[in-house]
Specification:
The structure is a single chain. The protein contains five helices and five strands. The protein has one domain: Rossmann fold. Helix content is 36%, strand content 21%. It is globular, with a radius of gyration of 15 Å. With 159 residues, it is of the alpha/beta class. It has a five-stranded mixed β-sheet with strand order 2-1-3-5-4, with helices on one face.
């Protein structure tokens, strides 16, 4: 059975940018069968093989926003991997396209973001963003248990 892949990424030394890694680690601590967790500073091409083997992928990252801790869920679409797509910084859609191009398959994927209070140097995550990470983990675990882990299920549960 192909795993569900959770990729939490961001810089844990830039305050709320640690949202993705925090959420991924919290999922990992639950030890949910059939879930592979990757914590990364940034997305890179080395993640493509794991994506190609997944049946569903959840990218988790912090973003700028007006309401700290506000959660957004969006589907990830394949993006161009032409010469302009070959950079040191990958977006989720570019990484999916790379997996599809090199390995012949890419999973359905979503991007879950939480609005950050700040990206200043430091390892403290604001209470609102920490709570958003806990909520994401709870929803992902619940939807996995019910067999409804998909874009629509996540979008509805994380409103």
């Amino acid at each position: 059975m192909q795993p569900v892949l959770i990729i939490g990424y961001g810089n844990s030394l830039r305050s709320d940018d640690g949202f993705g890694p925090l959420a991924a680690r919290l999922v990992e601590e639950r030890g949910i069968p059939g879930v592979e967790v990757i914590v990364a500073h940034q997305l890179n091409p080395e993640l493509a093989p794991s994506l190609a083997e997944a049946r569903f992928a959840v990218f988790v990252d912090a973003t700028e926003g007006t309401t700290p801790g506000a959660i957004t869920v969006a589907p990830v679409e394949l993006r161009d991997i032409g010469p302009s797509g070959a950079t040191h910084h990958f977006e989720p859609g570019t990484l999916l396209a790379l997996a599809k191009f090199v390995y012949g398959q890419a999973p359905e994927a979503v991007l879950i973001t939480a609005a950050a209070r700040n990206f200043e140097h430091g390892s403290d995550i604001s209470p609102e963003v920490r709570e958003a990470a806990r909520k994401v983990v709870q929803v992902v675990a619940s939807l996995l248990a019910s067999g409804r882990l998909d874009y629509e299920g996540l979008r509805e549960a994380l409103r």
